[in-house]
């Protein structure tokens, strides 16, 4: 058995850091969503790039699949080893290697989480802004091209990774990018690996852009009579050139779930949560401009949170959005959708989605990063009821079709994994075949996270 | 002869829009720099994507090389057809197809120039910010991943192209990206084609991000005693979080050239040219902050240009920088270097370059986009003197080595073309082989701009 031979060699390489315990395999066979548990054959915990390279060479020699693993918070089953083989858990490669204050960048290992990174950065006056909600590893965030609440101001992982070290399918180690802020030196390999979900290589180091902690921050929450009013307030704000650091929409159902989860008493109507970063006067000016815009759109109950503890309460509430919704249907599972549309179509997309869910008799509160046109519905269902899952998947399918028809994308930030693979041909057409050709060129034996991202091989 | 057969078929396809006139061939065999004229076999002027696709199929059937052409302003010989074949000039595909004000994006053909695009956008309150100086075509700008004076605020072409339509080497047409502001849907093909210099496909349409014309703009020029002082003022400004829209450095030699070219009388010492975009109060606040910073670094002769005509004069001067330097050595040619380093190393990089040029007896004024760490020396030489060119190339070579040793890149914005090909292995290591594998996968017969970008085939 090739797998047994490979595992024997990997044990020699890694010792106790090659785990085959049932609990470890089960843990690494789970995802955050509704997919069935699919344990790999082994879990490896490398400590160095050299070990990852050796591991990859052993697996290549024995044709054993290799799937990277950060902290397991991806939402589309990206890290599930459907073909078995070895899961590479980067938990032991979680160091901040260097911080360059003058250049506002940092070299980090893939296993460091965004919260741990920001904790280490606190005294420097710098921070890493990408915030997908979950305390994900930065390697995982790069692999799925994560973004979240702050992307409207600071960009996604695409914009905040300067360079990578990557172990290729044959064990070679490459470095992409440099520490320069921009480059025209050849194909953008950094951009190619970001978002490739471990199908082209294993990320073993990242050079990240950092940003200055803003002098002043202010946040606010505001209620609206309708989603239309809230979205129009957002589009006006963008058109006016007010630079929001975050702008989040919660629909009435999400607010109800919050109230129940946290014992709060917000008015049960759509809300916007917004944050501005800048100088004291800049933030005050933006806040004033935003206040005028929401007044034009029947905003009410406007409440500023200027103190850090108030802001933390606000964003903790937002980050607990999915949990509040799960809490509303104890014992059920949630399918988290993730479409992104041109902002001019956002109100239509949300309203049509809400109407569809209601007509389908489904419970699916809507919330999202409306500054980017990206929103989610967490559609709940009884996992013991096969028909219920089919109905939820059909509704999710209609959301994707609607987004594509509006010039949007099936996924703003969660990525492809297993859940979105059926839509790749439709969104990309012949471009999907181009992705397959790139995969074939870089991973001819289909070792890296096989069965994901690209068309099946003949 | 395969080429004759191909040209006969192309004539049938394009009629008079397949040109073989000597003047046209010569024109398309020229570059902006010192490379010898290398006329192609024919120049094609397609009007539609369909024609580009048919052209590509004919050339593929006869193994005829195809090289894209915008307006010929690239600086490293990117569009020179060294292997002959057909140059595809996109001059007849120069329309703005649609402008979506609500979404702040536009669909354009590759042949439209950035000035023509901004002229069409003027009434919309939006603009396309990427400004490489030359009035380049947006297709060419995407192909070389151009940037320029405004990248420090608005990003490069990498950041401002949402999606592309591309004709592949076999004539297939793909669309990359969507009109959504962000996506996690698979490999970033948009990012892969941007900067690929026509070696992976021909861009036939671009969806571009637009930005709101700022409410207020102010610009200034300021003199310094040394390059060190000027660069320290820039790094302090970045650290303070002041958002500059442009920040340009001119060394004393560049100022001397300006004075001679334009009959000006600026003090012959290093200068910074800066511009701020924002609200009236925001711009005033940034200007005040910047004023305090330059005072800390012995800045003097600080002069604000708030009126549009003053600003235009300032940036026209900057954009004429290279011409002013050419003018200082009539009849000579210039080799324009383009390194980019981490900003903490910028003063060292510039000072060492200036010392090196002086020690080598070369005339090479230095100017650049210091907010990104990107600078140029225009090194002049007598083109009739072979030894002079060798000496200039050796100095340029040392600039690249210095940039790489500092963690930077050989090219911040001009790209690879012919001039930088010798450094690809050194900057990218095994990553260059990965680029070669991608090229092989997408253009197996090596038809698209052959001899550029990737390692030679065996």
SSE arrangement:
The structure is a homodimer of 458-residue chains.
Chain A: H1 2-14, E1 18-19, H2 22-27, E2 42-44, H3 49-61, E3 66-69, E4 86-89, E5 96-100, E6 105-108, H4 114-121, E7 126-127, H5 138-143, H6 151-154, H7 157-160, E8 161-167, E9 173-176, H8 189-193, E10 202-209, E11 211-212, E12 216-223, H9 227-239, E13 244-250, H10 252-262, E14 271-278, H11 280-296, E15 300-305, H12 308-319, H13 321-327, E16 333-336, E17 339-340, H14 346-359, E18 366-369, E19 374-381, H15 386-405, H16 424-428, H17 430-442
Parallel strand pairs in A: 2-4, 3-4
Antiparallel strand pairs in A: 1-2, 5-6, 6-10, 7-11, 8-9, 8-10, 12-14, 12-15, 13-14, 13-18, 16-19, 17-19, 18-19
Helix pairs in contact in A: 1-3, 9-11, 9-14, 10-13, 14-15
Can you describe this structure?
Two copies of one chain form a homodimer. Chain A has 458 residues and is an alpha+beta fold. Chain A has four domains: 2-91, Uridine Diphospho-n-acetylenolpyruvylglucosamine Reductase, domain 2 (2-Layer Sandwich), CATH 3.30.43.10; 96-212, 2-Layer Sandwich (Uridine Diphospho-n-acetylenolpyruvylglucosamine Reductase, domain 3); 217-415, Vanillyl-alcohol Oxidase, Chain A, domain 3, CATH 3.40.462; 420-458. Helix content of chain A is 37%, strand content 20%. Chain A contains 17 helices and 19 strands. Chain A has helices spanning 2-14, 22-27, 49-61, 114-121, 138-143, 151-154, 157-160, 189-193, 227-239, 252-262, 280-296, 308-319, 321-327, 346-359, 386-405, 424-428, 430-442, and strands spanning 18-19, 42-44, 66-69, 86-89, 96-100, 105-108, 126-127, 161-167, 173-176, 202-209, 211-212, 216-223, 244-250, 271-278, 300-305, 333-336, 339-340, 366-369, 374-381. In chain A, the strands form four sheets. In chain A, strands 12, 13, 14, 15, 16, 17, 18 and 19 form an eight-stranded antiparallel β-sheet that branches. A five-stranded antiparallel β-sheet of chain A has the order 5-6-10-8-9. A four-stranded mixed β-sheet of chain A has the order 1-2-4-3. In chain A, strand 8 and strand 9 form a beta hairpin. The longest helix of chain A has 20 residues, at 386-405. The radius of gyration of chain A is 22 Å and the shape is globular. Chain A starts with a helix and ends in a 16-residue tail after the last helix. The mean pLDDT of chain A is 95. Chains A and B meet through strand 9, helix 8, helix 9, helix 11 and helix 16 of A and strand 9, helix 8, helix 9, helix 11 and helix 16 of B.
